[in-house]
Design goal:
Layout: H1 2-17, E1 31-45, E2 51-59, E3 68-75, E4 89-97, E5 100-108, H2 111-156, H3 161-181, H4 185-211, H5 220-228, H6 235-268, H7 274-303, H8 305-313, H9 318-323, H10 325-356
Antiparallel strand pairs: 1-2, 1-4, 2-3, 4-5
Helix pairs in contact: 1-3, 2-3, 3-4, 3-6, 4-6, 4-10, 6-7, 6-10, 7-10
Amino acid sequence: MKNFFGSLTLGLVALFVFSPVAVQAAESVNVFYKAEVLSIERSTPTPDQQTEQTLSVKILNGERQDETVQVTHTVSPEYKNRLFERGDKVVIIETPGIDGPEFFITDHYRLPSLVVVVVIFLLIAVWFARKRGAFAIVGLVIGIFILAGVVVPRITAGWNPLAIGIPGALVISFISLYVAHGWNKKTHVAMVATLLSIAIAAVLSVVAVYVTQLFGFGSEDAQALQLAGQRAIDLKGLLFVSIMIGVLGVLDDVTTALAATVEEIHKANLRLSTKELYRRALNVGREHIASLINTLVFAYAGAAMPLFLLFSLDLQPFWVTLNSEFMAEEIVRTLVGSTALVLAVPITAVIAARAYGKQQK
């Protein structure tokens, strides 16, 4: 418990150093509400084979709470499953119209279901990992707060993404490792290895982005961000940061797991030399990396499944799709992350072997 509170204190000091900045939100004439579908007034086909629903919905929050409004919702033939039914919870948007406000449905309201999924995950993590699981969740919450409450607002305020993103990644690593694993030699080894690996990932991402001539415009989200913001955001710098943050979670797994493995090998045979510990750590690390590379690649591939479907449609030559900035960003993101993970193994092995190995005279 002493280690936990010591780590938490250091984390709070870091939060103070990286205190949030106030960001003026862009003014919007649109208002969003939660609502419930009371009835389907009309559901008719249109000449172009779409289905047009006229719904009566009750607003559940905000200034218009308990008001009932009518909403028209049109669904294409291929999206019949997006037709709404009585009792559905939805998100509606109010926009100014010529004859007064107009209302449109934007999505299903699914936050309660997400909360259930999160609670199930937390319960399983704490049940299986006990105290370590609880501390890991605390570290995760603090890390998310730093990312969402400190790093993101400063980037939105016009800061250089690298200037705040790299220190932010280091602070998140520090807090997540020490809160989850305590203040001990094993965590010190993992922390040093993680810092060195993050530095390598930063260099690799900068080199790869410049060599491949990426500018951060590879996704529609990035383009929308540039148009929606009140200040110009360095999308290339944001790409650097996103690559490092993406590597961060898996990197912690590699360094902590390998450091713990070396510690256990050392406890099993206290007479093992530094060289022997390094050799055994590499053997374990190679097996770990073989599976982690697949995990990382397929995690990105799963997120990019619509892109793979585009390949099958033959809308343009394969090499043109492969050359696109969106595809190049995903390739660079995957390869830089995988390279950093591979290099983290010998780095952690060297540091752990020197920390635990018996020095030969």
